[in-house]
Design brief:
mainly alpha, 34 helices, globular
Length: 703
């Protein structure tokens, strides 16, 4: 159909803009050691998820120990160091990184007995552990987050010397180390707890899901749906990147993964390079707000707000719909303005080929089903991963053998559909699920034994274990650093100070507090990944919006979540846009501004649900008619804004019409009947004027 960016170039771009991808490339014994550690890490997480997690601090300590060891082995001290040779200093730090959390495991009983008292060796180990977490953060997350954490640590010691309301009594080194490293209120707090339980499992699930061939299916499906329409390749990019966002937790990785195919397609169709890169960047970034899998930040949100993850999925549906609708409409109007056509239907994937592949989405369906009926996220992730293994086996076979490979699905599906029958006191009791799993596992082994292609694919499954262990590192380390911030905020009383400061600065006006929070998210996002961004903002600003300004707690966290993600495409530092520009061979800043323009919905939607919680199904006003009216007015508003920004409705328009449409669109997205009607009137007037101009042109042409 079109050329695709070669894998080496795509890999180079990914390493340049995604810090987590720039790892050591070991060979020989060292490569096997690193693989063994990563696989053992995954096995430990699966084992505890299946048979029960350890005590909170023990589970988190083992998780952090594996994470630190892998970070120091995979990410060298200096960026200039070779990626192909072993560096003894990094090996030493890896050993210490594993040893410091191991101290908690080995001394756990003694630490519990002397709770609140820090011995001399405790102080040394704890201080070393904190420093190792900070250095690991510098390597895999980036220096900006280190600077943020160091600022909080300085504040902890400098309390007596701070002016006015910022002053506090100050902390001793013993108090700080004891709280941050030997309790579950610091490094081993809630964020690391979430990472050590179900975030890891969802990352592992994503690694297995990619091995099924689902990514290619999504791209083919998007081509079949929208490839033929005006400017088809750009619409394909919007759909495929949104779907791939349910698998990939990184906007940059999503850009490189789908963009290596879609961006050349867009350029070939006639889109300017900077616009092609922007479409992919905006769509891929939006993948992190696309249910059901919305990245690590969404799992953390569920824990911090105190709601089931199923609630997060439901509340994210309409905002995600409006976000992608805004991009889709922008792409549509741009295509019409440029007079671009779609791809020939004969070049597009055929439905008769696609429909038999629908089984590839089964793991996602099962995951959502299990979460919605009340399974824990960890259990749902483990079972969905098993489905991935079976689906991967099916996809690698041809002809009738596909049916043989599908046999293990029978006990798995029975277990999923009849899950309530396995509860204690029921007919099958709690042993029913164990029996189904045992049967499914036995059938998997038999299938591997009778299928040579799948015997050869066994390394792929092992690779997924290894990738799962490696892919969670940035999230785990960021969660540990967030624990330091939370610990300092708790010990110094800084939270109440910040609430008072923002409330005073905003003079009680919610809009001012929201704008300040938005700016903080975007500025922080210039150097901090989205997950870390959300954690910091959820710890500091979300409580301000909730308790200080009276905003609904869910809306406050969703607000921080959205703008933490938007930072990936907001100039001057917009890594997703820069990755898109590298593939498109376009100016980075022009690409970033185009991406911001396309994703304008992301800057508007959070304000809509902040002022009207019904959009996220929160509050007493959640009725069908009220929600429908919000969605309709917001949809028309998005269409008006997209049209104004692109300069086309049903024909090219002058600057005054473009400004009018943008203003009218903003009026329609502002909650309120009067503003909705005013905005709609502007849209209708511009539309009528454009139709009159079209008639005049036709009349002049016929003379």
């Amino acid at each position: 159909m079109t050329e695709k960016l070669d894998p080496k170039s795509a890999d180079d771009i990914l390493k340049k803009y995604d810090k987590e991808s720039d790892t050591m490339m070991y060979k020989g014994v060292m490569a096997k050691i690193v693989s063994a550690i990563a696989i053992t890490f995954s096995v430990f997480q699966l084992y505890t998820a299946t048979f029960g997690v350890l005590d909170a601090q023990l589970q988190r300590a083992v998780h952090l120990g594996f994470g630190l060891a892998l970070v120091y082995l995979l990410y060298p001290t200096r960026k200039s160091w070779s990626r192909y040779k072993v560096h003894p200093f990094d090996v030493l730090l890896a050993v210490l990184g594993a040893a410091t959390p191991a101290y908690i495991v080995m001394e756990y009983q003694h630490l519990v007995l002397r709770s609140g008292t820090v011995s001399g060796i405790d102080l040394v180990v704890g201080l070393l552990g904190i420093l190792l977490v900070i250095e690991a953060t510098r390597r895999i997350v980036g220096l900006p987050m280190v600077c943020v954490v160091l600022a909080f640590l300085i504040y902890a010691f400098a309390g007596p010397y701070m002016p006015g309301v910022l002053a506090h009594r100050g902390l001793t080194i013993e108090q700080l180390v004891g709280h941050l490293y030997f309790t579950t209120e610091g490094i081993f707090g809630i964020p690391l707890g979430v990472s050590s339980t179900f975030i890891f499992l969802f990352i592992l699930f994503g690694a297995y899901l990619e091995s099924t061939g689902l990514g290619k299916f999504f791209i083919d499906l998007a081509n079949a749906i929208a490839g033929w329409a005006s400017g088809g390749p750009a619409k394909v990019a919007v759909l495929s990147s949104g779907l791939m966002g349910t698998v990939s937790g990184s906007s940059v990785a999503n850009v490189v993964g789908t963009g290596s195919l879609t961006i050349p397609m867009m350029k070939k169709t006639g889109y300017p390079p900077e616009f092609a890169g922007a479409v992919e960047a905006a769509s891929s970034t939006g993948g992190q707000i696309m249910p059901p899998i919305m990245g690590a930040a969404a799992f953390l949100m569920a824990e911090m707000v105190g709601v089931p993850y199923a609630d997060i999925i439901v509340r994210a549906i309409l905002p995600a719909f409006l976000y992608f609708l805004g991009i889709f409409l922008g792409v549509h109007f741009k295509a019409k303005k440029l007079g671009l056509k779609g791809l020939p239907r004969e070049e597009l994937p055929k439905w008769k080929i696609l429909l038999p592949q629908i089984y590839l989405i089964l793991p996602l369906v099962v995951l959502v089903y299990m979460i919605m009926i009340g399974f824990t996220m960890a259990t749902a992730a483990v079972y969905a991963t098993l489905y991935c293994v079976v689906v991967a086996m099916i996809s690698r076979e041809e002809g009738k053998k596909k049916l043989v490979m599908a046999i293990p699905l029978i006990p798995l599906l029975f277990m999923t559909l009849m899950s309530r029958s396995f509860e204690p006191g029921t007919f099958m009791g709690e042993n029913g699920s164990t029996l189904c799993l045992a049967i499914a596992f036995a059938l998997l082994v038999i299938n591997y034994a009778i299928s040579k292609p799948n015997v050869k694919s066994l390394p792929t499954i092992i690779d997924a274990f290894e990738n799962g262990g490696k892919n969670c590192l940035s999230v785990g380390i960021a969660c540990g650093m967030a624990g330091i911030i939370a610990g300092v905020v708790t010990m110094t009383g800084l939270g109440q100070v910040l609430i008072g400061a923002i409330v005073g600065l905003s003079n009680g006006h919610l809009i001012i507090a929201l704008v300040l929070t938005m700016l903080c998210c975007i500025v922080l996002g210039m150097g901090v990944p989205t997950t870390a961004n959300y954690i910091i903002m959820a710890t500091t600003c979300a409580p301000i919006l909730a308790s200080g300004m009276g905003l609904n707690l869910m809306a406050a966290h969703m607000f921080c979540f959205y703008f933490g993600i938007v930072a990936d495409i907001t100039p001057p530092v917009a890594l997703a846009a820069y990755a898109g520009s590298a593939i498109a061979k376009a100016p980075p800043m022009k690409t970033a501004w185009n991406a911001t323009r396309l994703a304008i919905a992301a800057f508007i939607i959070p304000y809509i649900f902040a002022y009207n919680n019904a959009l996220i199904f929160v509050g007493s006003d959640v009725k069908f008619l009220s929600v429908a009216s919000i969605v309709i007015s917001a949809t028309l508003g998005m269409a008006s804004i997209a049209s104004g920004l692109m300069g086309y409705l049903i024909r090219d328009m002058k600057a005054i019409s473009r400004v009018a449409l943008v203003i009218g669109g903003l009026l329609m997205v502002i909650p309120g009947t009067v503003t909705d009607l005013a905005g709609l009137a502007v849209l209708v007037v511009v539309l009528v004027l454009q139709r009159i101009e079209n008639k005049k042109d036709k009349a002049a042409a016929s003379v």
